[in-house]
Amino acid sequence: MLRWGLSSMDFTRLSRTPPDAMRRGTSSLKLRILGGIFIVFLFSMGMVLYVSWTYQRDRLVEQTSRHALQTGLLIEAGLRTSMLLNDREATMETIRKMLRLKGFSLINVMNNRGEVVMSSDPAQVGRTLDKDREESCRVCHRDSRASPARTAVVTDNREGEFLRTVTVIANEPACYGCHAAEEKMVGILVIDSSLAELNRLISAMSRRIVLSGIAGFLLGFFLLHLIITRFLTRPLDRLLEGFTQIAKGRFDHWVDVRCGGEIEDMATCFNVMSRTIGRYVVEVSRKKAEVETHYTIAEALGQTIERKILKEVVVDLLCRVLDAATVTLVLLQESKEGLFEVVHTRKSDQRHYHFIYDLASGGEPQGDLKREEIEKLVHHGYTQPVFSRRGGRLLVPIQLKGMQMGLACVTKAGGAVFTMAERKIVPVLAHHITISFANARLYSMAVTDGLTSLYTKRYFNLKIDEYVDHFHEGETGFCVMILDLDHFKEVNDTHGHPVGDRVLVRIADLVRENIRHGDIPCRYGGEEFVVLLKGESQADAVRIAERIRRSVAEHSFEIGSIPPFHRTISIGLACFPRHADTAVDIVAAADAALYRAKARGRNRVEVFAGWAEQVETTLLRR
């Protein structure tokens, strides 16, 4: 048993999957990949913006703080000089000059008590800032017992964010004239710097990052789309199309993928696999066809064991299995040397034509066989099937262990020839046909009379029961014809029993020659014969009976040195179901008609006229 990668259920499901659905599958894969990249891009962009905003802002604020501290120290140095001169106006002028520097929004100078003594904003002068209560001071002065941890802090007010830088104005010896020497500082310089410009700078930088990121993403998205289409989705589409074609049974479909890498390797493996599967499928189909042909042969030949029916079955079988235009079958008649039964059929009309061919006549037989081919059969010239040179004609000998039984001629139409599959099946076909005819021969020996080669009385009883059953199943009726040779005892008494036997053989031949194909002639006993006639037509039965009667009456028996002599025959007829409705009664009716023919002068045909005739016949017997 072959085991492939896909089960039959998978192939069935794949064959029912529309190609558009498969293409949508690869398109969905592409969208999922691009969508995932887009999400990664958004996440990365968010991280970049977050890092840029926080890190760069902190760095810029730190740099601004250092700059503000340095500036505060410069301002403190400038103010110290003005304050040592006790020149308030010069100090305020210094503050105003410092204020005009870009970014400074407020400059306050406080004393040790937190009171604003000088300010760039006159409204601030005199204001006292409590470091424990003022919100902007508590950012650094969280613990009143400890010094603040920072000298710069970012805070905001109604005007926005700003950076507050605190610079201590230390008490130095030059200041001892106005301040006590034990004081550590003489004041505090507070400078507020607006962060609006810084924020605008960061915002502009963020916008540039976003725009450049989007432009880069769109370019990368486009390039990635081309790459994915070229190296992923398009090859996968072709692979899916290949699976679709395989599901439809097109194993010769070639998947052309030239993208390099693993997918191209997959396509190559797929092509190899499809070819391999195709070969296996062809092989399995061929094996299946062979098995089906064998089954057809066995089924056809198993229909019957009777030679008469088997002849027609064989020619039909040869015509069907080998797709022949005509078939001719020739069978040897064992008891008559030189005589052959010929059955011929044509595919165009499918009828069977039966002939008797006498080799001694010198003429050509009817059908497709030639005289020299039949002569070669008689002289055991065939040992195996023979094909013509062009391959359109076949001779099939029917022989078993050197015993020749017949020859079949099979002919193709026009210029057609036998295929390799048909050539392979011919030996098997010939073997089965030979066995069937051999069995039919044995069966014929069992059911036929050894002297006349007609069927026996036992066979007649079996067939008449079958005919009655077939009638009850809806088929037509039949007729029974009983024949008795008139004054046959005189032949035996005058010429002896061997001559009488030869007379019976010739009478059997005359009966057989004058009935139809399909009628069943039997030897009923002694010089009595019985024939089962197809169909219930009384007129047809009478015509056949009269034909037999005339043929016997006109025949001149020439046996050895005995002078020629003539004999006559009496015939009784009865039709089923007109004259009787059982097998026993129809035979009795035909027998009654026979005795009526005998009583009315012999050499005549009588039809059963009713059961009143039975009484008259009984009286005549007495």
**CATH homology superfamily of the largest domain:** Reverse transcriptase/Diguanylate cyclase domain
What is the number of beta strands? Answer: 16
Helix content percent band: 40-55%
What is the number of helical segments per DSSP (H or I, 4+ residues)? 15
The fold-level CATH name of the largest domain is Alpha-Beta Plaits
The largest pleated sheet is described as: 6 strands, antiparallel
Low-confidence stretches: 1-6
Subunit organisation of the chains: single chain
- The structural class is alpha+beta
Terminal-residue CA separation? 80 Å
Overall mean pLDDT score? 81
Shape: rod-shaped
CATH architecture of the largest domain: 2-Layer Sandwich
Using only C-alpha atoms, the radius of gyration works out to 61 Å
Instruction: Quickly count the domains.
Output: 3
Please list the strands of the largest sheet in the order they lie side by side: 8-7-6-11-10-9
Highest CATH level, the class of the largest domain: Alpha Beta
Approximate strand percentage: 15-25%
Fold topology:
Layout: H1 8-15, H2 19-84, H3 88-99, E1 104-110, E2 116-119, H4 135-138, E3 152-157, E4 160-170, E5 185-194, H5 196-247, H6 261-301, H7 307-321, E6 326-332, E7 339-346, E8 352-358, H8 371-378, E9 386-387, E10 393-400, E11 403-411, H9 420-447, H10 457-472, E12 478-485, H11 488-495, H12 497-514, E13 520-525, E14 528-534, H13 538-554, E15 569-576, H14 583-599, E16 605-607, H15 612-621
Parallel strand pairs: 15-16
Antiparallel strand pairs: 1-2, 1-5, 3-4, 4-5, 6-7, 6-11, 7-8, 9-10, 10-11, 12-14, 12-15, 13-14
Helix pairs in contact: 1-5, 2-3, 2-5, 5-6, 6-7, 6-9, 7-9, 11-12, 12-13, 14-15
